[in-house]
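ugh ok fine here u go
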Amino acid sequence: MGVYDPSGEQIGRLRDAVTTLRVDRQPPRVLGLVIELPHRHRIFVPMGRVTRIDADAVVLSTGTVNMRRFETRPTELLVLSQLLDRTVTVLDGDKRASVVDAAMEQNRSRDWVITRLAVRTGGGRIGRRRGELFQVPWDEVDGLQLAGPSTPSPEQGTESLLSVLAEMRPADVAHTLQDLPEKRRVEVAEALDDERLADVIQELPEDDQVALLQALPDERAADVLEAMDDDDAADLLGEMPDEDQERLLELMEPDEAEPVRRLMSYGDYTAGGMMTSEPVIMLPDATVAEALALVRNPELSPALAAQVFVVRPPIETPTGRFLGTAHLQRLLREPPAALVSAVVDKTPDALRADNSIEDVTRYLATYNLVAAPVVDEHERLLGAVSVDDVLDHLLPDGWRDVDAVHVPMVNRG
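structure:
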């Protein structure tokens, strides 16, 4: 839900609540909220700043907030990220259950406390009947009071957290993972399917990409690399030791590993090192209607969907002779039955794999392009380099860490 200042101006969105577990069965006090500002920057707002919590909004008593990036302290626990999915024992009947939600409300002293839990007994697995879902007071469960507040319980699933992450964009999921303890981060990563995890890993800073991939079993890591874009997989493997690179490449399917190996042979700041080997490619006898159907693929980035590269057979990279580019705007103006070969732009000359990043940047800017073809000495299409690939290399190291664009203020208190 949205978070607003007293005048009704939205400050950000609520992402989690911060609490601390107690050694007795008393309801834990909610210390504050984690608020996500624009650019995915997350801050801490003490509960004392909260005026009210409505069904669809949180209203603060002031619009002045501390901009320091939120980090959990050793005694703190995130309700959404670290409390959900924990295994507990319901004292009435001695039932084993999993926490799926939590309710907080103000007590007589105006403190916000977690008073009730929604739990599910049994079930929850694919192919099995889902268990009973019900609410219990906080003091009627066992298994939370003595758990370490900064480390998730060993018996902690991922179902509830995954249901929250399911509707989030990969970049937002990646940012959420960065806020989790390492053990919990790996648990969530292991529960994501290969394609989803590949999309998320591509949005992480390089060091976090390597750490997360190395935490996975080798077979699973190879599967995730196969699901990644070839250029991103090559960049990630390039950050790993040589022995790890070769081991994972050997575990990948040969037809998936081959283009990655080829990309790794180019320099980092060259057209070959930045390009993807899987742009939209068509033969000259394809129709405009077929081209438009291909670029509608929602998995394509906007930059790659902006044009179709026309080649002689074979169509897989390295292709037959590169004939030219059919731009989306031109395709939209042509009859559906027209051939793409009739609308290709044969100029300018394509980039070479050894062109520097300066050459690529100048090429894209000169011809107002969002992606450009890369060919070899025989004019065979090797791939395409897009403007987002160039930006990834031009931006400073650590640019994915949003703290780089925020100046910390005072410590939160």
